[in-house]
Amino acid sequence: MHQVYYQAAGGVVIDDGRVLLLDRPGRGEVRLPKGHIEAGESPLEAALREVCEETGYAGLEVVADLGTQQVRFVHRERQVTRDERYFLMRLRDGRQVARGAHEQQFIPIWVPAADAPERLTFEVEREFMWRALRWVAEKQG
After folding, report:
1. What is the tens place of the pLDDT at every residue in 103-136?
2. Which domain, by its residues, includes 67?
3. CA 131, CA 121: separation in Å to the nearest integer?
4. What pairing do the DSSP bridges indicate for beta strands 107-112 and 78-91?
C-alpha cells in the first residue's frame, strides 16, 4: 500500500459562546476548518488561510496554539499519516469574503460551544475542540 505523509493546520473559532463548524452534507460530516500546509507556509499562516477559505470569515485573530496530533487512516488505497495542528481563534470582526468553488462543499454553521464536541464527526477534532473549550474556561475562570 502506498504511504502518504503531510501536515495540515486549522482553527477552532469561538465567538460569543458559539463555535464555527463546517457541515459537509455530501459526506455526512461535520468538521473543523483545516487543510494542507503549503510549501513555505507556517502552520499559523496555513491555519488562517484555510479557515478563511473554507468559512469565508477573514477577520480572524489567533488566541492560542492548541498543539498537534498525528492521525493515521486509509484513503483511496493509501496509508495516510497526517500531522494536524490547530489554533484557537476568535473573530476580530465579522468581515467575510467569497469562497471558492471547491469550498462550496462546506456549509459554515455556528453552534453553541457546549454542543460543538458532539456535533463533530471525527474523534481527533473533538479532542481539539475540548482543548479549546478548556483553554477558554481557564481564562474566564
Report:
1. 889 999 999 999 999 999 999 999 999 999 999 9
2. 2-140
3. 16
4. unpaired
